[in-house]
Protein backbone atom coordinates (compact mmCIF):
# COMPACT_ATOMS: atom_id res chain seq x y z
CA UNK A 1 0.00 0.00 0.00
CA UNK A 2 1.20 3.51 -0.76
CA UNK A 3 0.15 6.95 0.31
CA UNK A 4 1.45 10.26 -0.97
CA UNK A 5 1.02 13.55 0.82
CA UNK A 6 2.42 17.05 0.40
CA UNK A 7 3.65 18.37 3.71
CA UNK A 8 1.15 20.97 4.86
CA UNK A 9 3.82 22.68 6.92
CA UNK A 10 5.51 23.87 3.70
CA UNK A 11 2.55 24.47 1.40
CA UNK A 12 3.24 24.41 -2.35
CA UNK A 13 6.68 23.06 -3.20
CA UNK A 14 7.18 21.06 0.00
CA UNK A 15 8.55 17.50 0.14
CA UNK A 16 6.34 14.48 -0.55
CA UNK A 17 6.27 11.22 1.40
CA UNK A 18 5.45 7.69 0.22
CA UNK A 19 5.28 4.90 2.77
CA UNK A 20 5.38 1.45 1.18
CA UNK A 21 4.73 -1.75 3.12
CA UNK A 22 6.45 -4.85 1.79
CA UNK A 23 3.41 -6.84 2.95
CA UNK A 24 0.39 -5.36 4.78
CA UNK A 25 -0.48 -8.76 6.27
CA UNK A 26 0.84 -9.64 9.70
CA UNK A 27 0.02 -11.37 13.00
CA UNK A 28 0.36 -10.42 16.68
CA UNK A 29 3.99 -10.70 17.75
CA UNK A 30 5.21 -10.45 14.16
CA UNK A 31 6.45 -7.31 12.36
CA UNK A 32 5.83 -5.06 9.37
CA UNK A 33 8.61 -4.13 6.99
CA UNK A 34 8.82 -1.48 4.32
CA UNK A 35 10.34 1.86 3.49
CA UNK A 36 9.55 5.55 3.74
CA UNK A 37 10.44 7.38 0.51
CA UNK A 38 10.88 11.14 0.85
CA UNK A 39 11.39 13.48 -2.11
CA UNK A 40 12.54 17.04 -1.52
CA UNK A 41 10.42 19.88 -2.85
CA UNK A 42 11.43 23.21 -4.36
CA UNK A 43 13.36 24.34 -1.29
CA UNK A 44 15.61 22.81 1.38
CA UNK A 45 14.18 21.71 4.73
CA UNK A 46 15.45 20.24 8.00
CA UNK A 47 13.59 17.08 9.03
CA UNK A 48 13.73 16.58 12.78
CA UNK A 49 12.36 13.03 12.97
CA UNK A 50 10.42 10.40 11.04
CA UNK A 51 8.07 8.27 13.14
CA UNK A 52 5.76 5.37 12.37
CA UNK A 53 2.66 4.73 14.47
CA UNK A 54 0.35 1.72 14.59
CA UNK A 55 -3.08 3.31 14.77
CA UNK A 56 -6.63 2.11 15.38
CA UNK A 57 -10.13 3.26 16.37
CA UNK A 58 -11.34 2.59 19.93
CA UNK A 59 -14.78 2.90 21.51
CA UNK A 60 -14.76 5.09 24.62
CA UNK A 61 -17.68 4.91 27.02
CA UNK A 62 -18.64 7.80 29.28
CA UNK A 63 -21.24 8.68 31.87
CA UNK A 64 -23.08 11.96 32.33
CA UNK A 65 -25.98 13.12 34.45
CA UNK A 66 -28.16 12.63 31.39
CA UNK A 67 -27.11 9.03 30.77
CA UNK A 68 -24.39 6.89 29.23
CA UNK A 69 -22.82 7.29 25.81
CA UNK A 70 -19.81 6.41 23.72
CA UNK A 71 -17.62 7.86 21.01
CA UNK A 72 -14.76 6.70 18.79
CA UNK A 73 -11.21 7.80 19.48
CA UNK A 74 -8.10 7.39 17.32
CA UNK A 75 -5.31 5.71 19.30
CA UNK A 76 -1.63 5.28 18.43
CA UNK A 77 -0.80 2.10 20.32
CA UNK A 78 2.79 1.61 19.17
CA UNK A 79 5.28 4.19 17.91
CA UNK A 80 8.75 3.80 16.43
CA UNK A 81 11.19 6.52 15.33
CA UNK A 82 12.77 5.28 12.09
CA UNK A 83 15.00 8.31 11.40
CA UNK A 84 16.45 11.18 13.38
CA UNK A 85 17.33 14.68 12.21
CA UNK A 86 18.62 15.22 8.66
CA UNK A 87 18.80 17.95 6.03
CA UNK A 88 16.73 17.39 2.87
CA UNK A 89 17.96 19.25 -0.19
CA UNK A 90 15.80 20.49 -3.04
CA UNK A 91 14.64 17.50 -5.12
CA UNK A 92 16.68 15.03 -3.04
CA UNK A 93 15.39 11.48 -2.79
CA UNK A 94 15.86 9.59 0.43
CA UNK A 95 14.63 6.08 1.29
CA UNK A 96 14.37 4.94 4.92
CA UNK A 97 13.89 1.19 5.45
CA UNK A 98 12.00 0.08 8.55
CA UNK A 99 10.76 -2.93 10.45
CA UNK A 100 8.18 -2.18 13.10
CA UNK A 101 7.19 -4.86 15.64
CA UNK A 102 3.52 -5.66 16.06
CA UNK A 103 2.59 -5.97 19.77
CA UNK A 104 1.34 -9.36 20.91
CA UNK A 105 -1.94 -7.81 22.10
CA UNK A 106 -2.71 -6.26 18.71
CA UNK A 107 -6.37 -7.00 17.82
CA UNK A 108 -7.28 -9.33 14.99
CA UNK A 109 -8.74 -7.51 11.96
CA UNK A 110 -9.17 -10.31 9.40
CA UNK A 111 -10.65 -13.80 9.75
CA UNK A 112 -11.14 -16.31 6.89
CA UNK A 113 -9.77 -13.68 4.52
CA UNK A 114 -12.52 -11.22 5.45
CA UNK A 115 -12.24 -7.93 7.32
CA UNK A 116 -14.08 -7.94 10.64
CA UNK A 117 -16.68 -5.16 10.37
CA UNK A 118 -15.74 -2.16 12.45
CA UNK A 119 -12.02 -2.90 12.60
CA UNK A 120 -9.77 0.01 11.53
CA UNK A 121 -6.02 -0.61 11.70
CA UNK A 122 -3.04 0.86 9.93
CA UNK A 123 0.38 2.50 9.90
CA UNK A 124 0.65 6.27 9.95
CA UNK A 125 3.86 8.11 9.07
CA UNK A 126 4.69 11.36 10.86
CA UNK A 127 7.37 13.91 9.94
CA UNK A 128 8.47 16.43 12.53
CA UNK A 129 9.62 19.64 10.87
CA UNK A 130 10.20 23.01 12.52
CA UNK A 131 8.59 21.74 15.72
CA UNK A 132 5.42 20.85 13.84
CA UNK A 133 4.24 17.29 13.19
CA UNK A 134 2.72 16.45 9.82
CA UNK A 135 0.70 13.22 9.89
CA UNK A 136 0.24 11.17 6.75
CA UNK A 137 -2.79 9.13 5.75
CA UNK A 138 -3.50 5.78 7.39
CA UNK A 139 -1.91 2.93 5.44
CA UNK A 140 -4.20 -0.08 6.15
CA UNK A 141 -2.82 -3.34 7.52
CA UNK A 142 -4.44 -6.74 8.06
CA UNK A 143 -3.79 -8.54 11.35
CA UNK A 144 -4.52 -12.24 11.04
CA UNK A 145 -5.08 -14.51 14.06
CA UNK A 146 -2.41 -16.58 15.74
CA UNK A 147 -2.86 -20.36 15.33
CA UNK A 148 -4.55 -20.69 18.73
CA UNK A 149 -6.81 -17.71 18.03
CA UNK A 150 -7.77 -19.09 14.61
CA UNK A 151 -8.50 -22.53 16.11
CA UNK A 152 -10.75 -21.07 18.82
CA UNK A 153 -12.64 -18.84 16.38
CA UNK A 154 -13.10 -21.80 14.05
CA UNK A 155 -14.41 -23.91 16.94
CA UNK A 156 -17.10 -21.34 17.76
CA UNK A 157 -18.26 -21.43 14.15
CA UNK A 158 -18.20 -25.24 14.02
CA UNK A 159 -20.33 -25.38 17.18
CA UNK A 160 -22.94 -23.18 15.53
CA UNK A 161 -22.19 -19.77 17.03
CA UNK A 162 -22.78 -16.88 14.61
CA UNK A 163 -20.66 -13.75 14.39
CA UNK A 164 -22.46 -10.62 15.60
CA UNK A 165 -19.92 -7.79 15.83
CA UNK A 166 -16.42 -6.76 16.85
CA UNK A 167 -15.06 -3.62 18.43
CA UNK A 168 -12.25 -2.25 20.57
CA UNK A 169 -13.04 -0.98 24.07
CA UNK A 170 -10.86 1.40 26.02
CA UNK A 171 -9.84 -0.03 29.37
CA UNK A 172 -8.41 -3.21 30.85
CA UNK A 173 -9.76 -6.70 31.43
CA UNK A 174 -9.94 -7.34 35.15
CA UNK A 175 -7.46 -9.94 36.36
CA UNK A 176 -5.49 -10.09 33.08
CA UNK A 177 -2.04 -8.60 32.56
CA UNK A 178 -2.45 -6.14 29.71
CA UNK A 179 -0.08 -3.61 28.15
CA UNK A 180 -2.32 -1.89 25.60
CA UNK A 181 -4.93 0.65 26.78
CA UNK A 182 -7.79 -1.23 25.06
CA UNK A 183 -9.05 -4.73 24.34
CA UNK A 184 -11.03 -6.40 21.58
CA UNK A 185 -14.49 -7.90 21.96
CA UNK A 186 -15.70 -10.36 19.33
CA UNK A 187 -19.40 -11.05 19.87
CA UNK A 188 -21.32 -14.16 18.82
CA UNK A 189 -24.97 -15.10 18.79
CA UNK A 190 -25.36 -18.41 20.64
CA UNK A 191 -25.38 -21.79 18.96
CA UNK A 192 -28.85 -23.41 18.80
CA UNK A 193 -28.11 -25.77 21.71
CA UNK A 194 -27.53 -22.77 24.00
CA UNK A 195 -29.95 -20.25 22.48
CA UNK A 196 -32.69 -20.74 25.09
CA UNK A 197 -30.27 -19.87 27.87
CA UNK A 198 -27.63 -17.46 26.48
CA UNK A 199 -28.27 -14.27 24.53
CA UNK A 200 -24.69 -13.76 23.33
CA UNK A 201 -21.03 -14.52 24.03
CA UNK A 202 -18.22 -11.97 24.00
CA UNK A 203 -14.74 -13.32 23.24
CA UNK A 204 -11.54 -11.45 24.13
CA UNK A 205 -7.96 -12.53 23.39
CA UNK A 206 -4.97 -11.14 25.29
CA UNK A 207 -1.81 -12.67 23.83
CA UNK A 208 1.74 -12.74 25.17
CA UNK A 209 4.92 -14.37 23.78
CA UNK A 210 4.22 -17.62 25.66
CA UNK A 211 0.45 -17.94 25.96
CA UNK A 212 -3.01 -16.72 25.08
CA UNK A 213 -5.52 -15.52 27.66
CA UNK A 214 -9.06 -16.30 26.52
CA UNK A 215 -11.81 -14.30 28.22
CA UNK A 216 -15.44 -15.34 27.68
CA UNK A 217 -18.37 -13.24 28.85
CA UNK A 218 -21.77 -14.91 28.68
CA UNK A 219 -24.96 -12.86 28.66
CA UNK A 220 -27.59 -14.98 30.36
CA UNK A 221 -31.11 -15.02 28.95
CA UNK A 222 -33.68 -14.23 31.66
CA UNK A 223 -36.86 -16.22 32.17
CA UNK A 224 -40.18 -15.92 33.92
CA UNK A 225 -38.73 -16.76 37.33
CA UNK A 226 -35.08 -15.88 36.73
CA UNK A 227 -33.21 -12.72 35.91
CA UNK A 228 -30.57 -12.24 33.25
CA UNK A 229 -26.94 -11.52 34.01
CA UNK A 230 -23.34 -11.87 32.89
CA UNK A 231 -20.69 -14.45 33.67
CA UNK A 232 -17.00 -13.95 32.93
CA UNK A 233 -14.51 -16.80 32.66
CA UNK A 234 -10.79 -16.82 31.83
CA UNK A 235 -8.73 -19.62 30.34
CA UNK A 236 -5.02 -19.78 29.48
CA UNK A 237 -3.71 -21.63 26.43
CA UNK A 238 -0.03 -21.95 25.49
CA UNK A 239 0.88 -21.32 21.86
CA UNK A 240 2.47 -24.77 21.72
CA UNK A 241 -0.92 -26.38 22.39
CA UNK A 242 -2.62 -24.84 19.36
CA UNK A 243 -2.25 -27.88 17.11
CA UNK A 244 -2.76 -30.53 19.80
CA UNK A 245 -6.28 -29.86 21.04
CA UNK A 246 -9.74 -30.79 19.82
CA UNK A 247 -10.89 -27.19 19.92
CA UNK A 248 -14.58 -27.81 19.30
CA UNK A 249 -14.67 -30.07 22.37
CA UNK A 250 -12.51 -27.62 24.31
CA UNK A 251 -14.72 -24.61 23.58
CA UNK A 252 -17.87 -26.62 24.26
CA UNK A 253 -16.33 -27.60 27.60
CA UNK A 254 -15.60 -23.97 28.41
CA UNK A 255 -19.20 -23.01 27.68
CA UNK A 256 -20.55 -25.92 29.73
CA UNK A 257 -18.23 -25.13 32.63
CA UNK A 258 -19.09 -21.44 32.67
CA UNK A 259 -22.84 -21.88 32.45
CA UNK A 260 -22.89 -24.65 35.07
CA UNK A 261 -20.80 -22.59 37.48
CA UNK A 262 -22.65 -19.31 37.13
CA UNK A 263 -26.12 -20.15 35.89
CA UNK A 264 -26.68 -23.79 36.89
CA UNK A 265 -28.21 -24.42 33.47
CA UNK A 266 -26.67 -27.63 32.18
Topology (elements, then pairings):
Blueprint: E1 4-6, E2 16-21, E3 25-26, E4 31-39, E5 45-64, E6 67-83, E7 86-88, E8 93-101, E9 110-111, E10 114-115, E11 121-129, E12 132-140, E13 142-143, H1 147-158, E14 162-170, E15 182-189, E16 198-207, E17 211-220, E18 229-238, H2 247-262
Parallel strand pairs: 3-13
Antiparallel strand pairs: 1-2, 2-4, 4-8, 5-6, 5-7, 5-11, 9-10, 11-12, 14-15, 15-16, 16-17, 17-18
Distance between the termini: 50 Å
How many domains comprise the coordinates?
2
The average pLDDT score comes to 86
> How does CATH name the architecture of the largest domain?
Sandwich
Could you spell the SSE succession in H and E letters?
Answer: EEEEEEEEEEEEEHEEEEEH
Described by strand count, sense and barrel closure, the largest sheet is: 5 strands, antiparallel
Question: Could you please describe the fold and organization of this structure?
Answer:
The protein has 266 residues and is mainly beta. The chain has two domains: 4-143, Immunoglobulin-like, CATH 2.60.40; 147-262, no CATH class. The chain contains two helices and 18 strands. β11 (121-129) and β12 (132-140) form a beta hairpin. α1 packs across α2. It is elongated. The model is unreliable at 1-6 and 222-229 (pLDDT under 50).
Please name the defining characteristics of this protein.
single chain, 266 residues, mainly beta, Immunoglobulin-like, 2 domains, five-stranded antiparallel β-sheet, 2 helices, 18 strands, 11% helix, disordered N terminus
